[in-house]
Design a protein that fits this description.
About 35% of the residues lie in helices and about 15% in strands. The protein has about 130 residues and is an alpha+beta fold. A hairpin with a 5-residue loop joins strand 1 and strand 2.
Length: about 130
């Protein structure tokens, strides 16, 4: 366990700032060796950081968003998520749509930085 902590800290100190939640896939073998893969932080964490929101609303109000992100921020989050092992084959546009859907469910709208009223993109309602 101590060896895992040491290797994990070494691997993540250059990737993310301290306190950033990350997913880890750990494989422990019967001979007491292990391998692990560090994945990107949760999309909700990245959206909250990008929008400056500390906590999402208890109930989403689509009329009154809790925060805003720009399309550029959405694509930066999508690029980061695309580096994860399970998403390398997915197109960036598809991952970005998923990020927009997560933002919408959190009450965060996507809009241009200089635009106060117009929402640029939202996932289509089905």
């Amino acid at each position: 366990m101590a060896e895992f902590c040491k290797q994990f800290n070494e691997k993540t100190e250059s990737l993310y700032e301290k306190g950033t939640p990350v997913s880890v896939q750990l494989t422990a073998l019967s001979d007491r060796t292990f391998t692990f893969d560090v994945r990107s932080p949760p999309t909700s964490y990245l959206l909250k950081a990008a929008s400056g929101v500390e906590k999402g609303p208890a109930k989403t109000n689509h009329e009154k968003p809790v925060g805003f992100v720009t399309p550029e921020q959405v694509y930066e989050i999508a690029r980061l998520k695309q580096k994860d092992g399970m998403r390398w084959h997915l197109p960036l546009e598809g991952i970005a749509k998923s990020v927009v859907g997560t933002a919408k469910s959190m009450g965060i709208h996507v809009r241009e930085a200089d635009d106060d009223d117009v929402v640029v993109s939202q996932v289509d309602e089905k």
